[in-house]
Amino acid sequence: MPTVRGCNLPDDLLYDVANNIWFRDLGDGTVKLGMTSVATAMAGQLVAFTPKKVGKAIDAGKSCATIESGKWVGPAKTAASGQVVAVNADLVANPKLANEDPYEKGWMIILKPADWAAAKAALIAGADVSDKYEAKMAADGFAGCA
Length: 146
Prior knowledge:
Elements: E1 3-4, E2 7-8, E3 14-16, E4 21-25, E5 31-35, H1 37-43, E6 46-51, E7 57-58, E8 63-69, E9 73-77, E10 82-87, H2 89-93, H3 97-100, E11 109-113, H4 116-121, E12 124-125, H5 130-140
Antiparallel strand pairs: 1-2, 3-4, 3-12, 4-5, 5-11, 6-8, 7-10, 8-9, 10-11
């Protein structure tokens, strides 16, 4: 598993580095999305997670959820267009799950992408993500995960 400045980035995932979002292809025509450990470390302790509703269509580059922490409120943007097919109700009830376990219990939504092949081509494979994240952290002035 790549680790950049103390932030774990599992190599079985795909990454939208610019937006700090990970994608896991579920093999059934859907993908699971979540915030990276980089995103949760930068945001601090999450206090609210408000996903788009099941059935909602989302365009690439648009918000699939609103995230709120003590430091920040903003959108979690998806690199793939598609329809929301599931939301993580546990994360809605306990937003800290994203800080505690961003890659398993802290997932945000499951999306049925309109064109997964096109979206996937724009994402970075976990095995190749270290250099991209090192550059992003340097540009953002982010020291890393504690």
